[in-house]
Amino acid sequence: MITCATLSHAVLFIFFLYGLYYDEYHNIPPAGSKTEQFRNNFGGRFKYLTHLDMLLQCGFFGLCVLNDFFGSNTMTLSRQSSLQKLRDWLFTSLVFPMGVFVSFIFWALYAFDRELIFPASLDEWFPSWLNHIMHTLPVIGTILEMYMVYHFYLKGWKLYVPILVAYFLYLSWICYIAYAGGIWVYPVFEVLDFTGRTLFLAALLLPNLLFVFLGQKLHHRVWGSPKEQTKRKGKKE
């Protein structure tokens, strides 16, 4: 049975997949430009968090489609399929917090000074619709998913481990690029000194953890806490 959630998953998967395809094969900077050299040098597109997040979002919503047809959507923990367990783990610990983080940080810096994150010179060849798929659709898609589908959350500190690991892996990656490639991935790091970069990167950890926490709170507000779910099941039985 095809539900609204299934249609939503399919549409979001197609949007992210097409965004990745277009960015790889058609979104080409002017030949010989500084932007072309920067995008194609050390790390390629994989040095950008937005590109990594698009891969994550695309893979997640593709997994959701598979689960809708071949997995389960039960609200009973013991009846979960392996696909549903993977879907819930990815969404609650990585997809939601990272999707909201990418959108929040990008548009916050864009509003403050767009030259620090997305220079105006990019407007000549970088389509605005692709910019929104990269930086707006993640927060829209994940919040829509939050309201349409029930997800199981891990308990305690285990919920925060994946985002912490992902954060420090990416932090190590961009620092390695700066060391080995001699470039900073984002212009904002070029205007900061060592102390400023350290404080800025350390401060970015807080919203990552906050969005995991807020995601769980929002989910419980929409669907009820685990205790409330248990009471509802007891009444039905």
Task: Please tell me about this protein's structure.
- With 237 residues, the protein is mainly α.
- The protein has helices spanning 4-25, 34-40, 49-70, 82-113, 128-135, 137-148, 161-181, 187-190, 194-223, 226-236.
- Helix 3 packs antiparallel against helix 4, helix 4 packs across helix 7 and helix 7 (161-181) runs antiparallel to helix 9 (194-223).
How are the SSEs ordered, and which strands pair?
Layout: H1 4-25, H2 34-40, H3 49-70, H4 82-113, H5 128-135, H6 137-148, H7 161-181, H8 187-190, H9 194-223, H10 226-236
Helix pairs in contact: 1-3, 1-6, 3-4, 4-6, 4-7, 4-9, 7-9
How many domain units?
A: 1
| Annotation, overall tally of beta strands | 0
Characterize the quaternary organization of these chains.
Answer: single chain
- Form type: globular
Share of helical residues: over 70%
Q: Give the CA-CA distance, first to last residue.
A: 25 Å
Q: Return the structural class.
A: mainly alpha
What's the helix-strand series?
HHHHHHHHHH
Fraction of residues in β-strands: under 5%
Q: Biggest sheet, in brief?
A: none
Query: Over the alpha carbons, how many angstroms does the gyration radius reach?
Result: 19 Å
Counting H and I runs of at least 4 residues, what is the number of helices? 10
Average pLDDT score: 91
Unreliable stretches covering 5 or more consecutive residues: none
Pfam families: Far-17a_AIG1
Protein name: Androgen-induced gene 1 protein-like
Subcellular location: Endomembrane system
GO cellular component, one term: membrane
